[in-house]
Amino acid sequence: MYDLTIFLIIAIIFLIIGTYFGVKLGIAKTNRMWEKEVPSIRKDATTRSRAVLEGQFTEQLAPYLPDFPYAPTEVRFIGKPIDFIVFKGMEHKNINEVVFVEVKTGNSKLSTTERNLRETILKGNVSWKEYRISKQKN
């Protein structure tokens, strides 16, 4: 009985020590892995961030590029969910068409929201509403 108790105590001590060192080794291994991965993750994040900034910059400049098909004075930047709304004819005070313009660079594709907006416009689900704010009497 006495030998069994000593054996169990020693076994428990070895289990505790083994668990402690196992956890420490696991943490060290994970830290080494992250030390190797962090530079590539940072590089990827920087590359993506630059691409987004480049796209946003290009979007804002698009109306001033020589091949942009609309007069810059008739273009209004919206940003989300569409880049521009063009009021054709506004320059001559005779708006005869409203055009929604989404600018893309490189291999970028329409987002789900942009595709949904495109389909809504193409289906003709566009309307005009006037909202008036009434003056409150004191």
Features:
138 residues; mainly alpha; three-stranded antiparallel sheet; 2 helices; elongated
Task: Give the total of domains.
Answer: 1
Largest sheet: 3 strands, antiparallel
Rg calc: 32 Å
Report how far the terminal alpha carbons are from each other.
96 Å
Provide a count of the helices. Answer: 2
The proportion of residues in beta strands is 5-15%
The string of secondary-structure elements, in order, is HEEEH
Overall 3D form: elongated
Uncertain stretches: none
Strands of the biggest beta sheet: in what spatial order? Answer: 1-2-3
* Helical content class: 40-55%
Number of strand segments: 3
SS-based class: mainly alpha
What is the arithmetic mean of pLDDT?
A: 89
Structure in words:
This protein has one domain. It has helices at 2-61, 112-122; strands spanning 75-77, 84-88, 97-101. With 138 residues, the chain is mainly alpha-helical.
Task: Break the fold down into its secondary structure elements and pairings.
Layout: H1 2-61, E1 75-77, E2 84-88, E3 97-101, H2 112-122
Antiparallel strand pairs: 1-2, 2-3
Structure in a nutshell:
The chain has 138 residues and is mainly α.
